[in-house]
Amino acid sequence: MLVARGARLIQADHIAHELMQPGQPVYEEVVRHFSRSILNPDGSVNRPKLAEAAFSPDQTGATRIGELNAIVHPAVIRHEDEWMEAEGRRDPRVIAVVEAALILEAGAADRFDRLIVVTCSEDQRMKRYAQRLKIDVEAARREVVRRMSAQLPDSVKIQRADFVIDNSGSLDATEAQVRQLYITLKQEAEDKIA
User: Which among 118, 122, 123 is positioned nearest to 173, based on CA atoms?
Assistant: First the structure.
């Protein structure tokens, strides 16, 4: 919705996918830490296998998600920083949006002018995930719970946020919040230049 109004967007997940392509340093490091068992026959990373290796608890109950994040996050952050700098040079008034679920967890929030948290109810999160992946709600619930265990609770993220978009209502209600947010961000960008 922000992009439709003129904002530029980069997604941390897409960057991570690019960095985990064969031949990339992040790929090499991930394979070194998690073994070749996470690879598809063609040598590409099998993301569900990697997720299973990173999120599954060992005998002590510990997971390896921190290990994976320590490999991936610094490279993603460097890529985002380069992108934001290039966007700012192209247009000093640009609204550049970095979409990432783990900004606070990665200790990266201070790199941004504003932190926007988009939230909805847990039940909606499960149903939307199930719809998107075309899986049953119970499978979606297990996966969402597993992934959310690596994240701070929404309540903490909301406390740190400059803006909160409540995405639990209608699409029109979300659109109205985004419209107002974009007006505010544009005004802040104009004031910064003036």
Answer: 118
